[in-house]
Design a protein that fits this description.
13 strands; 11 helices; single chain; three-stranded antiparallel sheet
Length: about 375
């Protein structure tokens, strides 16, 4: 075996991981599985990556073309993203035009909402049915004692499960900064419905005072989708917030390589994770929601849907260009990880070099300063 390749593999998978955590050791069987799982990784574009662009003219059609031009499997699109041209506001003919574009480009579409309210669930179902979509992300924004919030979420998801069965849909509940992984897993276990699972977000566990890799392993039996991103922890008293940074940059504190590896390896006979959405969220900020030493039934505060503040030190043109640049760089960073995984897996499995698609050309490393 190439010891240099093994050392690099171990070092990359150890970045951002607790020093006492073991690096996965590949045997021939797991190496063959890794080769199978990395042959065609389901990377998707995500509309939040283009948050400011979508306020200023970037449309769902543009997102689809970006996904196609960068050889991604599809796109994850919030039904409100795209300003006045969003899916929520599209009339039937506009939705049909969008559906035809996706079909022509061979792209999968997953829809997202930021609520579990029944009216919002019905709205996204209407959008999904008209666009031929089968996978939907949702999360709750309830407030009150944790025990009461859990019961509200359970009731909301039970309604969504009933709708999912009727219309052949799948919902994935995101751990979105308030509930911890074990609490979400408990709700999903109570539901016991294969049409309701989980979407794992790389950084959102921080706000619930939980390390992301720990949360991933707890939610592992239920994860079907993931939001891939970079972030750093902000210590706020006895809690943690998060600040979005370019994935793979020096300030990215997340164990991104290890999380990608673990997600790819989920599932016995076939991949469990069907979508890895590249959701670059530079400058996104969310405060602490849960804290150390909280009471057994803490009060969960209400929160508005996510947003990213405008960097006032940049012109609009620079801000929009930076978003697009970061999006391209994130694709390259994750594909480089996949290439590293494959090189090491080949060495362990004793497999001959195969006809891998050459790495796409990437932009030179950017300077992430504030200078316009």
């Amino acid at each position: 075996m190439d010891q240099g390749a093994k050392a690099r593999f171990d070092a990359v998978l150890s970045r951002g991981v607790d020093a006492q955590a073991d690096v996965p050791a590949l045997d021939k069987a797991s190496a063959r599985r890794l080769l199978e799982r990395t042959a065609n990784v389901p990377f998707f574009a995500h509309s939040y990556t283009f948050y400011h662009n979508m306020i200023h003219g970037f449309t769902p059609h543009d997102l689809a073309r970006f996904a196609y031009e960068h050889d991604l499997h599809g796109l994850c699109l919030h039904i409100s993203d795209g300003d006045s041209l969003n899916v929520r506001r599209m009339n039937p003919s506009e939705r049909e035009s969008f559906r035809r574009l996706l079909e022509e480009l061979g792209l999968q579409l997953h829809l997202e909402i930021s609520s579990t309210d029944r009216q919002e669930v019905d709205t996204v179902i209407d959008c999904a049915r008209s666009l031929g979509v089968h996978n939907i992300r949702l999360y709750a924004r309830h407030e009150g004692p944790l025990s009461a919030v859990i019961e509200k979420v359970y009731a909301d998801l039970a309604y969504a499960c009933d709708r999912a069965s009727k219309y052949d849909l799948h919902f994935d509940y995101e751990q979105h900064e308030d509930l911890r992984a074990a609490e979400i897993a408990g709700i999903l276990a109570r539901l016991g419905d294969p049409r309701m699972n989980a979407l794992f977000d790389y950084s959102n566990s921080l706000n619930a005072y939980e390390e992301p890799l720990v949360a991933l392993h707890i939610l592992a039996p239920y994860i079907r989708q993931a939001h891939v991103k970079g972030a750093r922890k902000t210590v706020e008293g006895d809690g943690w917030g998060q600040l979005g940074v370019p994935q793979g940059a020096p300030e990215d504190e997340l164990p991104g390589a290890r999380m990608l590896y673990d997600l790819l390896m989920l599932g016995e006979d076939k991949p469990q994770v069907i979508c890895l959405a590249l959701e670059q969220e530079v400058d996104y900020y969310a405060p602490a929601f849960r804290r150390a030493g909280e009471p057994p039934d803490p009060v969960i505060q209400y929160r508005e849907p996510s947003d990213t503040p405008v960097d006032r030190t940049k012109s609009r043109e620079r801000l929009l260009s930076d978003e697009r640049r970061w999006a391209v760089q994130q694709i390259g960073w994750n594909r480089d990880l996949v290439a590293l995984f494959r090189a090491h897996a080949r060495a362990v499995a004793g497999a001959a070099g195969g006809p891998d698609v050459p790495a796409i050309a990437k932009l030179p490393q950017a300077t992430y300063g504030n200078a316009a």
